[in-house]
Amino acid sequence: MSIESSLRADIVEVGRRMYARAYTASNDGNISVRLGSDRLLMTPKGVCKGFMSADMMCVTDLEGRKLQGDRDPSSEMLMHLEVYRQRPDVQAVVHAHPPIATGFAVAGIPLSRAVLAEVLTTLGSIPIANYATPSTAELPEAVRKYITAHDGMLLANHGALTVGADLFSAYFKMETIEHFAKISLVARLLGRENLLAREEVERLQQLRGSYGIKAPAPICPDPAQPIHGQAIEGTVTADDVATCQVVEAPSGSGQRLVPDSVLGPPTRAASPRNHEGAEIRLTYRELSALIEDAVRSLR
Ligand SMILES: [Zn+2]
User: What are phi and psi of 81, to 5 degrees?
Assistant: First the structure.
């Protein structure tokens, strides 16, 4: 199978999964991948992503001119083109309307709190791009502010966008965002959200390096003052763009995630003679250090 045939089949598969998981309804959502250095393979306009076939895809150049395909490319093509322009490292772009994450986008609540280690190591923070009319040039403009520093974002009153070094990594980030949104919603309904400490967030960033998961930008040293830079030259306008990720995490060195007062005293004391059943309690920091050592010893 040629690379192009295999990528066409991958787009069909990702579309089917997005529809099956209700990340899209009807003809919503769109998917694209780089096809070599100067062409893109993209889902067509006006088809349900759950029922696509490989021959439906469009081939365009990086300016959006159609080179091949019976159908017109996605109505959100301009947003995809903007991502590829700003992020030479990105190979694939996925856009969908997963309902819980989109609920946060409608409520104007970014997913930027330090809650789950795996979200911090794969995506960092997930900001909200300003509302823009879908399919117009406004949308790439709104996305430009965050795409340099983030691999995933919410689109206000619209949906979510993820990017990756290949199609499945972009798609899995969409899954992670929706999963994170669900967990955040449940925690907020339960009335409490215990955040990871800033020191722990920094440690996770280092772990990310040792796992080889490249972050597009560092965590902002001061969340209250995000750093802004300029978009890559050649764009329509040179708006300020985020160059670091805002993560809400309280400072508090070595604090236990769950205080002793909540857990109560250990039920069985550890004794040198009887380790079986003894409870070992570690701080997140200690657990991360153990994982880090284990990863190092595997090399
Ligand atoms: Zn959309």
Answer: -60, -40
